[in-house]
């Protein structure tokens, strides 16, 4: 198993260019900020971008915690990649990561200055400082479940080698971590329940929502609704539509990952 190191200061655009470097050097897996990413999926780990402080983020990124470390080690062992790209701010950080994950030291070292101009690096650092945006080199669909409550936007582009006629479509995600200099925000459960109630009551066949309960966790939210249904409608179709609408509106309006929307049809009414 070979290792490619990609080194550059924090905020210099490493994660933004990780997909390109991985493609150019035939890397099957990327280790970035505590995550093991391969084939457009997050195989294991927890993103350092979820931590509340910069110190906690650094510890997450270098796999200080034993459970986190073992989870990623196991994922690497199962995936058996031929070559891994590891991102870090210094040679020392790369070595700490390879030691933690029982990986060999890098065969190839790429510096951010090798692939980005000084102007591009300055722009990336300014965006990090002013907008608090970070990149995760994985599709938004894979990122959202593990980044519930964070603003996540997709970036899509094509990669093409000189000797390859077929370009590769790649997606990565832009997020704003909790420890961003712009501060933090939270969404109260009462807001989520109000969105769910309004969404459900917009469905023909739903008379009203009697009760709404929201359970929040690090992974997302679970919503339970007790619904009064109108007589004369197909019960299953009404419940299915209310469930889907509530889920879509919560995720669209809050950026939260909805783990489940559970509906209970309590009774029918003619009014």
What fraction of the residues are assigned to beta strands by DSSP?
25-35%
In DSSP terms (H or I, runs of 4 or more residues), the helix count works out at 9
The end-to-end distance, rounded to whole angstroms, is 68 Å
Most strands sheet: 6 strands, mixed
Shape: elongated
Radius of gyration: 22 Å
Structural class: alpha/beta
| Overall number of strands | 12
pLDDT under 50 segments (min length 5)? none
In short:
With 271 residues, the chain is an alpha/beta fold.
Structural write-up:
By secondary structure, this protein is α/β, with parallel strands linked by helices. The chain has helices spanning 14-24, 54-61, 66-79, 91-100, 112-115, 118-131, 140-143, 189-201, 235-254, and strands at 2-7, 29-32, 35-38, 41-45, 83-88, 108-111, 134-136, 152-159, 168-175, 206-217, 220-230, 258-269. It has a six-stranded mixed β-sheet with strand order 4-3-2-5-1-6, with helices on both faces. Helix 8 (189-201) crosses helix 9 (235-254). The longest helix is centred in the C-terminal third of the chain and has 20 residues, at 235-254. The chain is elongated, with a radius of gyration of 22 Å. The termini are far apart. The mean pLDDT is 81.
């Amino acid at each position: 198993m070979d290792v490619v190191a990609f080194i550059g200061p924090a905020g210099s655009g490493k994660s933004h260019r990780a997909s390109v470097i991985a493609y150019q050097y035939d890397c099957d897996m990327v280790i970035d900020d505590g995550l093991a990413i391969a084939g457009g999926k997050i195989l294991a780990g927890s993103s350092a971008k979820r931590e509340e402080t910069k110190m906690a983020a650094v510890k997450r990124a270098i796999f200080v915690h034993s459970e986190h470390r073992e989870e990623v080690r196991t994922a690497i062992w199962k995936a058996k990649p031929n070559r891994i790209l590891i991102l870090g701010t210094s040679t020392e950080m790369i070595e700490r990561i390879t030691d933690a994950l029982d990986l060999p030291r890098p065969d190839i070292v790429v510096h951010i200055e090798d692939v980005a101009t000084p102007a591009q690096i300055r722009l990336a650092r300014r965006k990090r400082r002013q907008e608090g945006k970070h990149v995760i080199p994985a599709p938004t669909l894979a990122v959202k479940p593990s980044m519930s409550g964070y603003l996540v936007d997709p970036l899509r582009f094509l990669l093409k080698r000189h000797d390859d006629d077929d370009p590769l479509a790649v997606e990565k995600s832009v997020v704003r971590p909790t420890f961003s200099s712009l501060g933090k925000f939270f969404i109260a459960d009462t807001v989520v329940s109000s969105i769910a109630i309004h969404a459900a009551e917009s469905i023909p066949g739903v008379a009203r929502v009697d009760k709404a309960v929201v359970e929040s966790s690090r992974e997302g939210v679970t919503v339970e609704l007790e619904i009064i249904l109108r007589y004369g409608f197909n019960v299953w179709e009404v419940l299915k539509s209310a469930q889907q609408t509530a889920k879509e509106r919560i995720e669209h309006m809050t950026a939260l990952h909805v783990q489940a929307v559970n509906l209970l049809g309590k009774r029918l009414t003619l009014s």
